[in-house]
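In the present case, backbone shapes were mapped to integers, as reproduced here:
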Amino acid sequence: MKPAPIEPVMKTLLAHKQEFQTTALMNVQEHYKTPFHVLISCILSLRTKDAVTGPASQRLFQLANTPEAMINVDVKAIEKAIYPAGFYKTKARTIQKICKILLEKHGGQVPTTHGELLALPGVGPKTAAITMVYGHGIHEHIPCDSHVHQIANRLGWVKTKKPEDTEHALKKIVPKQYWRDLNDLFVQFGQNICVPVSPWCSKCPVAKYCPKVSVTRSR
């Protein structure tokens, strides 16, 4: 099957962006616009639905808005603020550990290199990439979560088994002008239209390009 053309798909999704519900991390980027808030919100989002992540982030940042303030908050108060985020007790401790390291090793600032971010507790490739791209505005990565991984494979752009392999493959074929938008677009698209099970192909603005599905057989 022929892969979907990259530029028409990206241009179409960008044109339809306002029709999709925004993600929790997009809302954080819009409201707070700092690397610290993006990093911490991304930690909260792991294995947690957006409907929980957004309010949890808001409650936490009302409690403490900087690394300095965060380490002076009792961990139980952080747990209460971010509940019912998945693994909220572990995340509360991780957030304080990160803030302590930021203060002790980075002058209270979020590191600007991918390697330094990966050295922080609880930070994996996706979180590091999201912080680089959406926190620092450094567009050297394509943050790749389950939505990006699944949709890129559905479109025939890549044939990969793991999200980290998907990022490397996408960087070879996607024009750099789209790197910043790709994660936001595909997460929105994956939450609203191209869902993991029974995607809404009949409502999909890029269905005519997709090699995997037929609109006539879609819901």
Remarks:
- Residues 6-20+142-217 form a domain with the Endonuclease Iii, domain 2 fold (CATH 1.10.1670.10).
